[in-house]
Amino acid sequence: MSGGLSIHCVDVASGRVATGLRVTLHRLGPDGEPQGGALAEGHVGSNGLLQHPALMSDAIAVGGYEVRFEVGPFYRAQNASSPTPAFLETVPYRFHIADASQHYHLPFKFTPWGFSLFRGGA
C-alpha cells in the first residue's frame, strides 16, 4: 500500500489556507517531462488540502512527479486589480518518490511574490 501524498496550501499574504487554489499533479516520464494527463487535479478545500482519491492510493508510486500551483489565477479571483500576467503565474515543482511506503507531505506557502515548498512531516 502506498503511503500517499498530501498537498497543503497556505496563502501567507492573507494568513489563511488557500481555498480555491487550482493544483494539478502529473507523473514524469523517462525523459523527465510530464506524461499523459493529470494524475490528480482540483481546487484546494477549506482545510487547505487538495482532496483527490489518487493521492492516497497505489497511483502514488516510486518515480518522478510535477505539481503545478496556479497562483496568478488564485490572486486574480480575489482581487480584480491583480496584473496579468502575475509575477508568479504557475509554480511548477518537480520531486521524486524513492519509497512509496512512506507518506510524502508537500506544504506550499506562498504570496504573490514568492513561495516555499518542501517535504514536510504529516
What would you call the structural class?
A: mainly beta
Question: What is the averaged pLDDT score?
Answer: 94
**What name goes with the CATH superfamily?**
Transthyretin/hydroxyisourate hydrolase domain
**What's the CATH class, please?**
Mainly Beta
Assign the CATH architecture.
Sandwich
Helix content: under 10%
Rg computed from alpha carbons, rounded to a whole number of angstroms = 14 Å
Task: Write up this protein.
With 122 residues, the protein is mostly beta strands. The chain has one domain: Immunoglobulin-like (Sandwich). The chain has one helix at 71-78; strands at 5-11, 16-17, 22-27, 40-43, 63-69, 91-97, 104-110, 115-117. It has a 4-stranded mixed β-sheet with strand order 2-1-7-8, with no helix packed on it. A 4-stranded antiparallel β-sheet has the order 4-3-5-6. The radius of gyration is 14 Å and the shape is globular. The two termini are 17 Å apart. 23% of the residues are buried. The model has no long low-confidence stretch (mean pLDDT 94).
Outline the fold blueprint.
Blueprint: E1 5-11, E2 16-17, E3 22-27, E4 40-43, E5 63-69, H1 71-78, E6 91-97, E7 104-110, E8 115-117
Parallel strand pairs: 1-7
Antiparallel strand pairs: 1-2, 3-4, 3-5, 5-6, 7-8
